[in-house]
Design a protein that fits this description.
By secondary structure, the chain is α/β, with parallel strands linked by helices. Helix content is about 50%, strand content about 10%. It has a four-stranded antiparallel β-sheet with strand order 1-2-4-3. A four-stranded parallel β-sheet has the order 6-5-10-11, with helices on both faces. The structure holds arginine.
């Protein structure tokens, strides 16, 4: 469906032409004076300059030309030359009826679908998830859903960090604890056990222990670096161990992400792209891009217009070991080969921006990426505690994701229990669903690139711009619809009539904005635009609800019409929530 604003603009275009002006002056926007009008057009002012006429004369002529329009009512020219507009109630309800009949709610799929890869999550294998990974998962998931809803082919890739020193540390620690395992025997030629030699709980303990030891014991650290190197060079036993670590870790990660309502199409990682590295590096050398500097292999990526220094992109260390940059470059090679994406979007902490500047430039320079493939960095800000510093545990350590979610759940549970009597089980279930909305909405309602303060109290409040407030609104609608059905009403029938009062019209106008909001949210990859819309829509609905009797309406045709409006409101709210990655419970 065409956007309502575009339809109004087209109507104004005709009127400008009739008034002897160019139609291009007819741009209509939402009103910034909602007390006076719903939409406005300031084009007469600009046209006045071109045609050397008083703006009000042009505005008057346009208003005159609009006489008899079905789209608008109450059209006014106001000094010095504003055109104030209101959409006609009849046209608006017609638009909403059409929207309600469309399964996509009037938002058309793109006619130029692209293949878009989204690199998000980025957990490091065997290391616990921390809050830094939370933002990547939440934002990436939402961006993926928004792009998919726009009609693109979207592939989400978790891009595991499974190739760094943490692997060598785990191997080293395990070797000390269980030296007789066949993985450590270089002469061993048989098969390796199916079963991993550790559980996830052990793995989670092994890594911090090893990491702590390496900081105190230089020889230990040396051994871990050597193990990392040998793993990367393909030592058989270590490769087998890596597979085991991955298997145990990934099944745990999947569980964690499922709890967050986040999922990935691909569970690939840094280690998967190792086979591409030798050829990639050789070609870069042959083409003359890569050269040796202080023993390391590098590619220059600085550009003349740089205002800050962009260091060379390092491909291989002097011992031949690959780096974070190398795996990211090889990942681009693999992605191009297997998926030929039109865009790759990286949802990563903005503190890694320089890394991506280097990677993107290097990939372009060396021709790893097709010219028309866009590489995009969607960097997000830091989640801070109330003290404005990066979120920490009470003891000052890195906050693990699990604990943070547990905190939210606990607070949510307290609030849910206070709201009405219910069984412990029900309270726990609801707290989980609502808690997730609190975390996700609290995060997504901020522009991704900005830092924000994680405030458990505020995020879990049922009032204000929060996830729980949105859920309360949906649950309220659900409960009215349920009662209506219990009284024998059918929510699937009937059309909406013209609105009767201002708050009903305001709600209708909010609903009509849906396709336009979706378009912007995709263009800007901006979940916060969806949040802002949800909040506006929820407010418009609640105002309408407080001012209007719904089930008590005498006139049944009117009652049915209002029910239709509720059904549509619920659908729009739920669609938006789904794009953000959370949902509402049946009751709260
Ligand atoms: N594993 C990395 C980290 O924890 C994030 C990975 C981001 N994605 C990428 N392609 N580099 O910092």
């Amino acid at each position: 469906m065409k956007k309502l604003l575009d339809l109004i603009t087209e109507e104004l275009e005709q009127a400008f032409i009739k008034a002897g002006c160019d139609g291009a002056y007819a741009r209509v926007t939402l009103s910034n004076r909602p007390d006076l009008c719903e939409y406005q057009c300031n084009g007469a002012m600009a046209a006045a300059k071109k045609y050397h006429k008083a703006p009000i004369l042009i505005a008057n002529a346009v208003v005159e030309a609009l006489a008899g329009t079905e789209l608008l009512e109450d059209v006014q020219a106001v000094n010095p030359g504003f055109i104030n507009l209101k959409v006609s109630a009849g046209f608006l309800s017609g638009y909403l009826n059409e929207m309600a009949e469309d399964e996509r709610l009037g938002y058309e799929k793109t006619d130029a679908p692209e293949t878009i890869m989204i690199d998000y999550g980025g957990p490091n294998v065997a290391k616990p998830l921390h809050v830094g990974h939370l933002r990547s998962a939440i934002i990436g998931e939402s961006v993926k859903r928004i792009a998919r809803f726009a009609g693109h082919k979207v592939i989400g890739d978790v891009h595991l960090g499974d190739w760094g020193l943490q692997m060598g540390l785990i191997i080293t620690e395990l070797k000390e604890r269980k030296p007789s395992l066949p993985y450590f025997d270089e002469t061993y030629e048989g098969g390796y056990p199916q079963e991993a030699p550790f559980t996830i709980a052990e793995l989670e303990e092994i890594y911090p222990t090893a990491s702590g030891r390496s900081k105190e014991d230089a020889a230990y650290k040396e051994a871990a670096m050597q193990a990392t190197f040998e793993l990367q060079q393909g030592r058989r036993g270590y490769q087998a161990l890596l597979k085991q670590i991955l298997a145990v870790s990934v099944s745990d990660l999947k569980q964690n992400y499922a709890n967050l309502n986040v999922d990935f199409d691909l569970w690939k990682g840094e280690s998967d792209v190792q086979p591409y590295i030798p050829d990639m590096v050789r070609e870069m050398k042959e083409k003359g891009y890569a050269y040796t500097s202080d023993g390391a292999l590098v590619v220059d990526v600085k550009e003349e217009s740089d205002t800050k220094e962009v260091p060379p992109c390092m491909l291989l260390k002097s011992d031949g070991a690959s780096l974070y940059t190398t795996t990211d470059l090889a990942t681009i090679v693999e992605r191009m080969k297997l998926y030929r994406p039109d865009r790759i979007v990286y949802v990563v902490d903005k503190r890694q921006e320089m890394h991506f500047v280097q990677v993107f430039r290097c990939a372009r320079k060396c021709g790893l990426v097709a010219e028309d493939t866009r590489l995009e960095f969607l960097g997000f800000g830091t989640m801070n505690g109330k003290d404005g510093k990066p979120f920490k545990t009470r003891e000052g350590g890195v906050m693990r994701l699990q604990y943070l979610l547990a905190d939210i759940n606990e607070e949510m549970l307290k609030k849910i229990r206070e709201s009405r009597p219910m069984s412990e089980e029900e309270a726990a279930d609801i707290a989980k669903v609502v808690g997730l909305s609190a975390v996700k909405y609290g995060d997504l309602s901020n522009q991704a690139s900005k830092d924000y303060i994680f405030d458990v109290d505020r995020f879990t409040s049922s009032e204000g711009n929060t996830g729980p407030y949105i859920l309360y609104t949906v649950v309220r609608i659900k409960s009215i619809l349920k009662k209506y059905e219990e009284q024998g009403g059918r929510t699937t029938e009937g059309r909406m009539m013209e609105c009767e009062n201002e708050s009903e019209k305001a709600l209708m106008r909010e609903l009509a904005r849906f396709n336009s909001v979706m378009e912007t949210a995709y263009e800007e990859l901006a979940p916060h635009k969806v949040c802002a819309y949800l909040y506006d829509l929820a407010n418009a609905f609640n105002k309408f609800y407080h001012e209007t009797s719904i089930l008590g309406t005498e006139d049944t045709a009117r009652k049915d019409s209002r029910i239709r409006l509720l059904v549509l409101t619920r659908r729009v709210l739920e669609t938006c929530m789904d794009l953000l990655g959370f949902e509402a419970p049946e009751r709260m």
